[in-house]
Write a structure and sequence with these properties.
By secondary structure, the protein is α/β, with parallel strands linked by helices. The protein is globular.
């Protein structure tokens, strides 16, 4: 289940647990702006096939930068 977390928790998960960072914006917007180390899986394509490359043993942080 998704869980909202703070910026500090994101930093901790990335540092201590080697969390995987997934940007959910469309590909063209991902190219313009994304966090360092993030991979792009657009929200409309999130599913079993597109997430198969993620390591199930590590936490996954999915975010979407939307300035609107």
């Amino acid at each position: 289940m998704p869980t909202a977390i703070s910026r500090d928790e994101v930093k901790r998960l990335l540092r201590d647990e080697q969390a995987q960072l997934v940007e959910a914006l469309p590909s063209d917007e991902y190219e313009d702006e994304h966090l360092p180390g993030a991979i792009n899986i657009p929200l409309k394509t999130l599913g079993r096939a597109t997430t198969a490359s993620l390591d199930r043993r590590r936490p996954v942080i999915v975010y979407c930068y939307d300035y609107q």
